[in-house]
Design goal:
Blueprint: H1 2-24, E1 28-30, E2 41-43, E3 48-52, E4 56-61, E5 67-74, E6 82-95, E7 104-111, E8 123-127, E9 129-141, E10 148-156, E11 159-174, H2 176-201, H3 208-226, H4 229-244, H5 248-253, H6 258-277, H7 283-301
Antiparallel strand pairs: 1-11, 2-5, 3-4, 4-11, 5-10, 6-9, 6-11, 7-8, 7-10
Helix pairs in contact: 1-2, 1-7, 2-3, 2-7, 3-6, 3-7, 6-7
Length: 313
């Protein structure tokens, strides 16, 4: 029981510290000049219009059958570059269309030699209804197959108005302080996970096979947590590309995030092994082990939603 209380208190301390570091420490700093210019292109219809302002633009559409958009093509950016697209966005009376993507959206779309890469992350914000001004930042890693990039604001077969101000696109890099704190927190979480798994392994009358499976599941979860985001995205993109090339049917039906599928499978295996190892008297410890490991890995990988003063250029 003292060990269980120690684990519980350590988890609370690590969770609070991790959330605080994500809240107060700026993750990114500029690594180059502004990529957007004043040369925007438009796509409108008879029942839609785009009004330019001194600080941005306003899209208005009464036609739910067409796409009203303003976009700008970005020169070639080196593969692996991290880009930050941010803007102040406001929507008024936006009515969504039939498809999930028929909304008011701000996007950063990557394009290879053959097609637009909608399989890669692209959405900064997607809105319906009425929302007051709010700043929306989006972080994107340039794929190795990307030939060009397009910044887009659009009403995609949706009606209403979308206002965008202070739109900016910059290459960025992680700040040294954030990288240092992140490595310290990852090390601390790793020690906590080892303590957690170690207490499960000392359970008596359990087979070596179950203990070995538990260790393998834990190592897989830990590897997924500590793997750099850029490398993780690259692996995920390559797997998606391979799956999509198999058949058009597979491409249309495979809509889940592969990282989430892998995450679910590993924790399902971890929980199943613990269920086999733990006696009913240790049910509370088993539940705590699963929940704390799941929450800890999410907190350790979490990216801050807001940016510090050094990120607002």
């Amino acid at each position: 029981m003292p060990l269980f209380k120690t684990q519980y208190l350590l988890f609370i301390f690590l969770a609070v510290t991790t959330i605080a570091s994500h809240t107060w420490i700026a993750q990114y700093e500029p690594d180059g000049s502004e990529l957007l210019t004043d040369h925007w292109k438009y796509k409108t219809s008879e029942n839609s219009q785009i009004n330019l302002t001194s600080t941005g633009f306003n899209l208005i559409s009464n036609d739910a059958t067409t796409i009203t958009s303003i976009y700008q093509d970005i020169p070639t950016v080196a593969p692996g570059t991290i880009l930050l697209l941010s803007a102040d966005v406001k929507s008024n009376d936006v009515l969504a269309g039939e498809k999930p993507w028929n909304q008011a959206r701000l996007l950063l779309l990557q394009i290879d030699k053959k097609k637009e890469r909608w399989d890669l992350p692209s959405v900064v914000v997607s809105l319906t209804g009425t929302h007051d001004w709010e700043n929306y930042p989006g972080i994107f890693t340039v794929s190795h197959e990307t030939q060009s990039i397009r910044a887009i604001a659009q009403l995609s077969q949706a009606t209403g108005s979308l206002q965008v101000n202070n739109i900016q696109l910059y290459p960025v890099r992680e700040t040294q302080l954030f990288a240092t704190i992140r490595n310290i927190m990852l090390s601390a979480w790793s020690v906590f996970f080892l303590l957690l798994i170690g207490s499960c392994l000392i359970s008596k009358k359990q087979s070596i096979f179950l203990r070995l499976l538990l260790v393998c599941a834990f190592i897989s979860i830990l590897a997924g947590t500590t793997l750099p985001g850029k490398l993780k995205n690259q692996v995920s993109d390559e797997v998606k590309t391979h799956i999509h090339t198999q058949s058009e049917q597979t491409k249309n039906t495979m809509t889940w995030d592969l990282s989430k599928i892998w995450h679910f499978c590993l924790f399902f295996l971890f929980g199943l092994i613990l269920c086999l190892m733990m006696t009913q008297e240790r049910l509370s410890r088993m539940i705590f082990a699963i929940l704390s490991l799941a929450a800890g890995t999410e907190l350790a990988q979490k990216r801050p939603r807001k940016f510090g003063q050094s990120d607002k250029w």
